[in-house]
Amino acid sequence: MKFELRDAANEEQLQSCKNIRKTVFVDEQGVALEDEFDEWDVLRPEVRHILAFDGNVPVATSRLRRADGCAKLERICILQPYRKYGLGRLLIARLEELARADGLNKAKLHGQTQAAGFYEKLGYSRGSEEFMEDGIPHLLMVKTLD
User: Fold this and answer.
1) Under a CB-based contact definition with an 8 Å cutoff, are residues 63 and 36 in contact?
2) Which residue in 64, 45, 59 sits closest to 108, CA to CA?
3) How many angstroms separate the CA atoms of 27 and 56, rounded?
4) Taking a C-beta distance cutoff of 8 angstroms, is the pair 71, 91 a contact?
5) Cross-strand partners of 66
6) Domain containing 15 — which CATH number?
7) Is 0.90 topped by the overall pTM?
8) How many helices (H) and strands (E) are present in the chain, helices listed first?
9) Is 134 in contact with 37 (CB distance < 8 Å)?
């Protein structure tokens, strides 16, 4: 499969990001709806929402913003039928590329503990003990961007 990654450029695309996140985090993983969405779910220059498309169908999303002088990678999720095609790697690579272009040399994310091995393969290391976020065990994962 060949996927195309694009910035969410309008409200319809931002809504596609939200729909994917609702499916993955709320419906599949049981995150409370009111906990999933926050003040960063808007189209503003200081936050980037990325959509992955299979043709014209949005199938994955992620978000990037600056926090504490670092690139904060957030809300990385892929619809179930599209997992295992390398989309996670593509999303992370795009977020890191955007962070570097913005002059950031460190990235961090709150990764679900079950995905720690995935992030470690991409060069991230554990930056915390396990903690609970939205009822799911997480780890702070950090990486120096070259």
Assistant:
1) no
2) 64
3) 23
4) no
5) 71
6) 3.40.630.30
7) yes
8) 4, 8
9) no
27, part of any domain: yes
Return mean pLDDT, the chain: 96
Query: Containing H/E element for 33?
Result: helix 33-36
Separation of CA 78 from chain center: 9
Q: Are 145 and 100 in contact (CB under 8 A)?
A: yes
Produce one character per residue of 113-139: b if its CB has 16 or more CB atoms within 10 Å, e if not. Answer: eeebebbeeeebeeeeeeeeeeeeebb
Residue 117 inside a domain? The answer is no
* Token pair listed for 101: 């272009």
> Is position 88 within any domain?
yes
| Residue reference for tokens 């470690």 | 120
131 within domain boundaries: no
Domain count for the chain, please give it.
Answer: 1
Is the Cβ–Cβ distance between 36 and 26 less than 8 Å? Answer: yes
Structural domain boundaries enclosing 54 = 4-103
**Model confidence pLDDT, tens digit, residues 64-105:** 999 999 999 999 999 999 999 999 999 999 999 999 999 999
Assign 98 to helix, strand or coil: helix
Q: For 116-125, what is each residue's pLDDT tens digit?
A: 999 999 999 9
